[in-house]
Amino acid sequence: MQENNETVDKFFLLGFQISHNLRIFLYCLLLVVYCVTICGNLLIITLVSTSKNLHTPMYFFISHLSMTDILLASDIAPNSLHILLNNGAAISFTNCMAQLYFFSTAEAFECLLLAVMSYDRYVAICNPLHYISIMTGMLCVKLVIIFWIFSFSISFIHIILFSRLIYCGPNIIDHLYCDLVPLQEISCSDTFSIKLHLYLLSIPFMVIPNLIIVISYVNIVRVVLRIPSNISRQKAFSTCSSHLTVVSMFYLTTFAVYLFPRKGQTSDVNKLVSLLYTVCTPLVNPIIYSFRNRDIKKSFLGTIQKNV
């Protein structure tokens, strides 16, 4: 850590190298998206905590998904707004590591949370008679606490490894925030240990959660297709459609940023996809759960009627 501070004590994030008017447009758009994201997710957290009909495992997990979205958006958006307004900005080494830390924590937690949410839908549809005894309130609380502790702990190890890299060359990061790949690209150190660490982390945070999600939905589809009534079948599918939509968006944007080849893409395209991944997805999540969920809409209207 000391060695790093003797070489590079700050980085310069370039942002978008575009015209002034286009940057101002993106700034205003991002500001609106960020404000709506915070308000939408805070609304869901408030409704779940105050409405008795939302005191179920599914909505408990949804409220924590909203907390994750707030953490992710607040970690990325404010500094990105500053960068857009000033056509690039410097960020200290410490703040860069802190941004990467909270970013990694939010993403790791969401991977685990989406997996347990799919298992919750599997139990609700495939084993409804034992749902209450399996998905108890205590189990849900324990799982969420374990996920938060695990995510914060693993991300801390993650940051220690990145902070030990030597950044002796140019300190310019052609991005909107401190991310994994840009930091590796400007490092003078051998990044083999970092890449190995990331590959190993993909097992508990990507491979296993994806397997849980796929297995859960394969069994859900298998059970639902056996239901003779079309109305009952549609009702069963509707209980997990919101979660499936969120899962699809999360992993599609994740793969677009980290797995799909970048060859042939411009730097600005990569930044736009990253912005979609870190800022727009947290905006869409509460919209999906509010507009496609009767219970949340009912609780929202009930809250308004009480306060009018």
Can you tell me about this structure?
With 308 residues, the protein is mainly alpha-helical. Strands 2-1-3 form a three-stranded mixed β-sheet. Helix 2 packs parallel to helix 10, helix 4 runs antiparallel to helix 9 and helix 6 packs antiparallel against helix 8. The radius of gyration is 21 Å and the shape is globular. The N terminus is likely disordered.
Shape: globular
What fraction, in percent, of the residue positions are helical? over 70%
Q: Tally the beta strands.
A: 3
How far the N terminus sits from the C terminus, by CA atoms, comes to 56 Å
Which class of secondary structure composition applies to the elements? mainly alpha
- The low-confidence parts are 1-5
Please give the order of strands in the largest beta sheet. 2-1-3
Question: Main sheet?
Answer: 3 strands, mixed
Radius of gyration: 21 Å
Mean pLDDT value: 86
N-to-C series of helices and strands: HEHHEHHHEHHHHH
> How much β-strand is present in the residues?
under 5%
Counting H and I runs of at least 4 residues, what is the number of helices? Answer: 11
Defining traits:
308 residues; 11 helices; 3% strand; disordered N terminus
Per-chain topology:
Layout: H1 2-7, E1 10-13, H2 20-50, H3 57-86, E2 89-92, H4 93-126, H5 131-134, H6 137-163, E3 172-173, H7 180-185, H8 192-225, H9 230-258, H10 267-291, H11 294-307
Parallel strand pairs: 1-3
Antiparallel strand pairs: 1-2
Helix pairs in contact: 2-3, 2-10, 3-4, 3-10, 4-6, 4-8, 4-9, 6-8, 9-10
Short structural summary:
The protein has 308 residues and is mostly helical.
